[in-house]
Amino acid sequence: MPGAGGMGGLLGGANVGAEARELLETDAGDCTRAAATVGAQDAVSYQLATSAPVMAIGGFDGNALFPTAAQFKEYVADGRIHYFVAGGAMGGGRDAGTSAQITSWVEENFEGVTAGTATFHDLTRKRTGS
Questions:
Q1: Which residue has the higher pLDDT, 36 or 60?
Q2: Is pLDDT larger for residue 77 or for residue 1?
Q3: What are the φ and ψ backbone dihedral angles of 58, each rounded to 5 degrees?
């Protein structure tokens, strides 16, 4: 199953290439979490590749209600999460309520940069005009 970083990493999670690792490791200590992504499979792949904490939006498959969209926005405002990695190993999470709300909000408000086949949104830098 494709993950945010390509085909089949750990249990269908992301394959984390050097470019993605470098992004996540740069200034990783400045935030509580190096990144957040929908679903635990990709989150664990990024965390294992970098040894930096990564938040799983929506739990295992992206469908759990944690964090809420309001909580996530608060974490971002507080500078707790550096990157949001768009996509997810479990496709259902992308279309499920809270995860979809968070993903849409991030994509509307933060520029994305491609590293490998994943898009990383720097949550410390809002789009101009947002």
A1: 36
A2: 77
A3: 80, 15
C-beta contacts of 49-52 below 8 A and 24+ residues apart: 49/16, 49/20, 49/21, 49/24, 50/16, 50/21, 50/24, 50/25, 52/24, 52/25, 52/28
pLDDT, tens digit (0-9, with 9 covering 90-100), for 46-93 = 999 999 999 999 888 777 888 999 999 999 999 999 999 996 544 444
Give the C-alpha separation, 130 to 23, whole Å. Answer: 23
H or E stretch at 121: strand 118-126
Encoding tokens for residue 42?
Answer: 């990709």
Spatial CB neighbours of 4, under 8 Å, sequence gap ≥ 6 = 14, 37, 42, 85, 86, 87, 88, 89, 117, 118
